[in-house]
Protein 1
Amino acid sequence: MPPSPSQHAADALLINGQSLRSIRHHIHQNPELCYEEHQTADFIAAALDALAIPYERGLGGTGIVATLTGSGSRDAGQAPVIGFRAELDALPLTEQNDFAHRSLVQGKKHGCGHDGHMTMLLGLAAWLSQNRDFAGTVRFIFQPAEEGGAGARRMIEDGLLEAFPMDRIFSLHNWPDLPAGTVGVMPGPIMAGGQMIEVTVRGQGGHGATPYACTDQLNIAVQILNQMHVFMARRLPPFSPAVLTITRFTGGEAMNVIPDQVHFDGTIRILDDVAANIIRTELPSLIEGIARSWGVEADVTLTDFYPVTSSNASAAELVETAARNIGLKVETSATGLRPAMTSEDFSFLLQKVPGCYFWLGQGGEHGLHHPSYDFNDDVLPTGVMLYAEIARLALDQGKIDG
Ligand SMILES: [Zn+2]
Ligand SMILES: [Zn+2]
């Protein structure tokens, strides 16, 4: 296996005569939303054609899986298959930047850096296509609809893992909270699992002057909401972190009319199954019970959204080693790195294939999903180097268990 590229070599990679920066800018200018990433997928496919890497399109709708097998040899059945993933989709967000590569599409932008992720994965593909003397296979997965559309799950449902089996799988996300080039990695949970909760309180409305002659749905809904927070604080063990936020509360049309029904909904984030199970089994009946005690009904819908994103310990260790090997600073739980309470659909893949999801610091003053956010091009070569070193270590390891 060849050594990983130097910073200079990674920065000098060209695909179809284009630098990684210009590729990133092109993708940034042409954002597409969940499951509509047709032109983006065409662009990725054209880049793979230029690299002469075979691929299959259409998994999960717009998804692409490219496969590169090295020219090196190993004992039969011992050559590992390593997967890397990037996301195709942008956000329904109006860009507040005026640089030359700003989004050309009103109301859509790459506000999560997936433009950078695709570019780094193409950079890895370019590097490995020029350095094919490795023993094993590398897959490049470009998935649709990470932003709420569970594109990774859709690809799995479309047979991704049967058609393209993998021994190990990796994905990075740029991370504005870490300095540019610093890697954040830890075994176990790094991003939260999510549940959505919707509550409708139904009773008999009436005149605002006579609440004693009807039932006051707004007041009951407020009590339920407050008791939900007490539930989170008292029923969940403190070592199972969880967040409940009600983000919408609607009901009533006039200052003197008590409405028949009030609706509210929001999000729950958890870092382990303990909290998720307690919430799933106990919270709906608590809500229904409070409503019943006031003589009204509550309809509760609790939906699992994304699972916890949890990295395999040996894969996380491999990422940490790779980062140190190429001279990057590493933050781990030992240095105070903590999981994020946001969610990520790479979790579906990590449920099926051991692997690691990690952060590549990119600095910057704007966080992910901010209208002024932009991916930091300076970390493009860093991401390629890191991916290449992870591939090198994982391919050198060969097939391993767990
Ligand atoms: Zn995002
Ligand atoms: Zn993202």
Protein 2
Amino acid sequence: MTDPTLSALDLPAFNPGCVWLVGAGPGDPGLLTLLALHALRQADHIVYDALVDDRILGLANPAAVKEFAGKRGGRPSPAQEDISLRLVELGRQGLRVLRLKAGDPFVFGRGGEEALALVAAGLPFRVVPGITAGLAGPAYAGIPATHRTANQAVILVTGQSAGDGPDWAALAATRAPLILYMAWRGLGGIAQALQDGGLPPDTAVAVICDATTPRQRVLTSTLGACARDLGASDLAPPAIIVIGAIAELRGTLNWLGVADA
Ligand SMILES: C[S@@+](CC[C@H](N)C(=O)[O-])C[C@H]1O[C@@H](n2cnc3c(N)ncnc32)[C@H](O)[C@@H]1O
């Protein structure tokens, strides 16, 4: 599918037998990169994740096969090894394979594992970064990831981990704001561990659900109360959780104008 606007940009060719690992961004199709749109228009086969917005899939070449590879309805997601093998298999068939992942493929997206499998198989690949939910979500909630008078560093961290998990006391000791992915279920324990590590219970918290989509909702709270407040709310994941003084800026910078949940 040729798009005159994209053709004028002299973007790289999506060659048969090549796999592109592409970030779909956090949800709002307006946050898609031009390279991601180019890939969607060219791909023969798209392997996509659960959090990829339907409006973005709708931009794909109508002839492309769309294969779901995420978690849905509480059913277990396909094993990562199987997804990587599938990408290799499709690439070996000489297809233009688009692996479409929410946010950025290399930020808590397991894109590195897929890239390693492609290297091992000797298949050519390209990585197209996307805007990660951990930065776009706060921005759409009126929360700058860094603010000169508030922080000189910011930490992106997972609330779910294959190993022992993050050292919450060490993270608390940095006093840098934390931006949490996949922390919905663990929030109570994480909030307690951060307080045990020295963060005051009145530290600001913002929980940003369905960030950048028309369904976006935000709950503001404190470290001491956030687990209880979230439990009492009707909110649901996916969510990005911001912990630290930057979250207070939402009070004045809520440019989207949607009131707190
Ligand atoms: C497996 S991680 C994928 C992260 C993704 N690679 C990125 O860069 O945004 C899934 C987690 O990302 C976060 N997430 C992704 N999209 C989101 C959205 N639109 N709103 C809120 N959180 C989102 C949630 O914390 C979710 O549990």
